[in-house]
Fold prephenate dehydrogenase.
Amino acid sequence: MLPFARVSIIGLGLIGSSIARAVRQHMPTVRLTGHDADPGVRARAVAIDLVDDVADTPGAAVTDADLVILCVPVGAMAAVAAAVAADLPADAIVSDVGSSKAGVEAALQAALPGATIIPAHPVAGTENSGPDAGFATLFHGRWCILTPPEGAGEAAIVRLTAFWEGLGAKVEIMDARHHDLVLAITSHLPHLIAYTIVGTASDLEEVTQSEVIKYSAGGFRDFTRIAASDPTMWRDVFLANKDAVLEMLQRFSEDLTALQRAIRWGDGDALFDLFTRTRAIRRSIIEQGQDDARPDFGRSHE
Amino acid sequence: MLPFARVSIIGLGLIGSSIARAVRQHMPTVRLTGHDADPGVRARAVAIDLVDDVADTPGAAVTDADLVILCVPVGAMAAVAAAVAADLPADAIVSDVGSSKAGVEAALQAALPGATIIPAHPVAGTENSGPDAGFATLFHGRWCILTPPEGAGEAAIVRLTAFWEGLGAKVEIMDARHHDLVLAITSHLPHLIAYTIVGTASDLEEVTQSEVIKYSAGGFRDFTRIAASDPTMWRDVFLANKDAVLEMLQRFSEDLTALQRAIRWGDGDALFDLFTRTRAIRRSIIEQGQDDARPDFGRSHE
């Protein structure tokens, strides 16, 4: 028994196109409809046969759906929800894949009063964007967090859970505010820091851009991957999850100041203690299957 | 014509053991001698046949070497250099692989007056440590920076260049102070930031350690790799390259404060501009062969 028969995906970028491919692979009888605001992306989706039907408007994409997934930047959720409101079937479940949840929940509830809304966040991705960047196994072994609003029906939660598990994900239920705090430290702050240091490195006068690139294997290149992520998506995340991000940033800055002081005063023990402590976390991440155990993330060494 | 016939490696960790394996692969007729301060590492080196001879003291390891490479944490360079001084052949070239160079140059010159000293830094590594972590291809396509002191003989530079090129590296000559500035931004600051954020994440009360680990695929896990690097090595780097690291850290902090302000005031354009700019650097790093072009560094997705 499939949890849904007709799935509509609005936004055919990395995540939307990965869902489409994963549905095709794991639930081949599901009827897939898609829409993207960009006509070029719609044409590409047709060309690569990403979904069964590419609709020209968001409304036309949802008319007979039993699951609608909004895969657009969080700043665009309100407008897209408003654009499907008139055509949304009464029994459809509306979900999304946004990286912040409290703001998205509020936006969807305001735009779609009375609809069954179960926001979701698959914690998976790569630094690439667009309909060609997606792949069917993106969600395998990754967590998808559902943040059902107060009073959400149990049946809808169960069906959406079955859907994501069907795509290979593990599902966790969480309060939207707690989600936003957890993701602020595990995702949003890392992106903010990566964007910052790549910017700092490219603004130096004493060190040329070409030197930064040549010697990036010393550690810098690890930061450039997430600093190559989609700018619109990430602008929206920081604006939408402002309070939690600023809170985590404040703690990080305090810790950085403490390390700065340890370096200035030559306090080797303080440095050594922290550097020893941080090894354990990576070990746990690998043990729990959330990263590659091979050195260098499994990068090729010829 | 091999540049050296008898190579001595002091310190058989990740880098020392990688040099040994690379020499065996690319220059099989070279006689390799090794020493490590840790008796357990020496026993392991014998067991895995890492080098032709494992010596019990640093002095015994260098008696007939024409190239001696010190592969120990930069804080240990002075003591190791002093320990080989009495046994060092007059015509041997002494080099090292330390991540900071001005301090190492001064330490080696003080301990080995009159010796031919050409400090070096192969910009390569993984997060793993010890004699089993090394591999022969670690230096392939990576840069090795030589920082010959003023007045260093051209012949010695040419021979050491040929040695590293023989192991598959590309060689660049640089002033030690400039090296320390370049590496402060491309390697030392990234490590400091990675260690800091992993520490920040593990100290939170509102978010559990288990949540940090579960949802690390949102970006955090990228930082944990370099935060799992050898604690002794990195403590020494920050103490040895204090001025350049503090200078880069200051610039990073200023840039982070500017972003913090942009988030606080909802200045989406400032965020978008930076996030767009940082994409180009990753593209260049990939084009120049300094990182894997595949998404997620080529991590496995089943």
DSSP finds twelve helices and nine strands in chain B. The radius of gyration of chain B is 21 Å. The beta strands of chain B are 6-10, 31-35, 53-54, 67-70, 93-96, 116-117, 120-122, 143-146, 170-173. Chain B touches chain A through 112 residues (CB under 8 Å).
